[in-house]
What does this fold into?
Amino acid sequence: MNKIQSYPFLFVLILWACSESKVKVNESVVDALQDSSLVQDPQAKIAFFQYEDSSAYPDAILELYTPLGNQSFRPGKVPFEFNIKNFSLNEGGADAPQLFLILNGGDPIGFFSPIFQRELTQGTYRAVAYLVDEEGLALKSFGNYVDRDFLVGDSRPFPYSAEPYLALNFPRNQQVVPLGQELIIDFLVLGGDMDLDNLKVRIELNGISYESEQMLPVRVANLPVGDYQITLNLLRKDNKELEGPFSSVTKSFFVR
It folds into this structure.
């Protein structure tokens, strides 16, 4: 009988352990942006934070076979071919793509197959492709993502630049975040290392500024109902701005 009674306690202990497995870091709390009557808990303040790094699938490898670097294509259907190692595209289920592609800083598009085509017009393109976990967050270990420049039609390559740049997984442009849910800001830094290259990301959200020196998703809790614009800037730790068209990205989203 005593053993039977101990099971509920053990179940609670396991739940407690799971809830404590994620540790908040780099937390910053600010006053509400708008009318506090729109916040579910009037006593709650807007909080920015990250969780300690717990990288999933560190051995997953994403390789890009096509396009080649600065390869030129005719306008129309452009082929993409990837090779994926140590990772299954079925991990997220039938309705959740786990391979995503960003072109020229736009919104990510998900794919269920490593071989596909995109209809593209004349221009110079930078492709950033990456794998995501079951929550849709970008995998951030070396080899989990890849980038490549290519050309469509009569176009010229981007000017050479060895500086790092950003790719934004979340939020998506015009995304609607339900009231009471956390906003997730999920980004990748490509072409550099945040520690070795002395980098940081500055987030501007409707007049509020938050900085991080770690390539970890940023979560924002207790945002009131409203329309928002978010800008991410990749900077040196001495606040020197980086050159290049992809060192900054801006999106709009809504809390409803």
Notes: The first strand starts at residue 24 and ends at 30.
